[in-house]
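Human:
If only I could read backbone structure tokens as easily as an amino acid sequence. I am handing you a single protein, as its sequence and its fold in token form. I hope you can help me see how the letters and the tokens relate. Thank you; the sequence and its tokens follow:
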Amino acid sequence: MKLKKLLALTLSALLCLGTLAGCGGKVNYAKDNTKFIIGVSGPLTGNAAIYGTAVKNAAQMAVDEINAAGGFNGIMFELVATDDANDAARLATNYSSMYEGGMQVSLGTVTTQPGLEFKNLSKDDNVFFLTPSASGDKIPEFDNGYQMCFADGNQGKVAAEFVNDNYAGTTIGVFYKSDEAYSKGIYDQFKDNLDSSVKVIETTFTDANTTDFSTQIDTLKECEFIFMPTYYTPASQFMRQAKGVLEAADAVYYGCDGFDGIDSIDGFDITEIPQEITMLSHFNSKATEGAAKEFIDKYVEKYGKDTLNQFGASAYDCVYAIFNAMKAAEQAGKKITVTMSASDLCDILKDQFQGGFTVTDAVTGSEITWEDNGYVNKSAIKYVIKEAN
């Protein structure tokens, strides 16, 4: 009996060491790091690639600038970007490769569906993330996750306020993807905050590969305002097919951050759409002054205009926010080393973001703070992508 008990205790100890590197904590995959590693997963291929490419480009630009200025006490940063093609099924593999490769902090994911997987994995490992654009309301569900973008619910609420102020007593149309967390999340909050005097004609789709929206267009053809809380690919297809069908030539298409990049889609000439196309945003890509203008000039010089959008602008702000939070923590007496575990760094960053940390004069806001639930606080703007012809 004593031998069996000894063997059992030995096996238990080995399992503990193998999984936790000692029962007191998690494996420190960053123990051999020579740079601070920032990870992000996003669509670098597929229909949403313009978003992921913008995030990767802008985040890398911020990393390059920080490194050129001396990094963090002489230690450089490294960005690791993985491709999930906006497919949640790919996220686990991407996450494991980054985490086991020494990732200490993250920008999370670019889009919401993979982000819902990321938040659970990062919670288990206690990895801090600040996502530039995964806007689902449940993305920052746990205390290690924060958003630089507006949450879907906030977008829906602000969009409803705009409609209440400008279209009270009228009938509006809505076009959205009813089985998608991003699209439905925005619309649900929109409905909850809409004035009772506004009548809604609702149209939906579920198949991401749908290219024929003739039924939806026919349903909405008399509407003078069409709210489209969806991504730019189905929205642009709708607009193209609706030319000459909508009875109101001065109708307005109104979207959220999923519209970003709609004027740069291959094969889609936005100037041929007669209606006004506008969106709720936190970034003005036509800015003529301030931090936004400086970012635009640098980004266009380095990467061109095709992927200039608020996703990238937000990612640029994310990298600097993390860097400045690390500096603020060090000034407050916290010790930060390049070989510290992701979990230890997460605890330090959580203290900062939960303690009133503020970003000023950023690309996507003049004064940015965060709520305890991980949602961002900053001003929104109405951005006109294209005026009516």
Notes: The longest helix spans residues 310-331. The radius of gyration is 23 Å.
